Amino acid sequence: MSVIGPRLPLMKDETFGHYSLITKFKEEVRQNLKNLLLTSPGERMMIPDFGVGLRRFLFEPRHQNIPAIRQKIDSQVRKYMPFIRNLKVQFDAGTGPDFLDSSNILSITIVYDVPGLNLVNTLTLNKEDVR
């Protein structure tokens, strides 16, 4: 079985060596997308503009910032993960606009595909992931 990369966060696992590793491209793309969303610009050495920085939006008025978050996700994915196509970003799936105005809980669901791998996948980030 081929190994693609380390599973984050690093965890002890003796299956392939010392740490748990990813063996499927679907998992690697999902992990890399999550990393891109949660990394703050300036946090990654040598690539100062890398990252969406979802944490910085935690205490901002949500309704006004949703277009900015959506635009930042789109531009970062186009720049750093250009193999992803048909990106669909939903905020608080299954709720109406009144909920977006009054709630302080943010949930982001991203549906994406990778045509080169014939892959369609979904990534959902809840408040626990963004802390």
Report on this model:
With 131 residues, the chain is of the alpha+beta class. It has a single domain, classed as Nuclear Transport Factor 2, Chain: A, CATH 3.10.450.40. The chain is built from 4 helices and 5 strands, in the order E-E-H-H-E-H-E-E-H. It is globular. The model has no long low-confidence stretch (mean pLDDT 86).
CATH top level assignment = Alpha Beta
Number of separate domains: 1
What ranges have pLDDT less than 50 throughout 5 or more consecutive residues?
none
Annotation, overall tally of beta strands: 5
Please tell me the CATH architecture by its name. Answer: Roll
List SSEs in N-to-C order: EEHHEHEEH
Q: Main sheet, how many strands, which sense, barrel?
A: 3 strands, antiparallel
Estimate the strand proportion.
Answer: 15-25%
The strand order across the widest sheet is 3-4-5
**CATH fold group:** Nuclear Transport Factor 2, Chain: A
Radius of gyration: 16 Å
> N- to C-terminal separation?
34 Å
What sort of overall outline do the alpha carbons produce when their principal axes are compared?
A: globular
Average pLDDT number? 86
Q: What is this structure's SSE topology?
A:
Elements: E1 5-6, E2 21-22, H1 25-38, H2 62-80, E3 85-91, H3 97-102, E4 108-114, E5 119-125, H4 127-130
Antiparallel strand pairs: 1-2, 3-4, 4-5
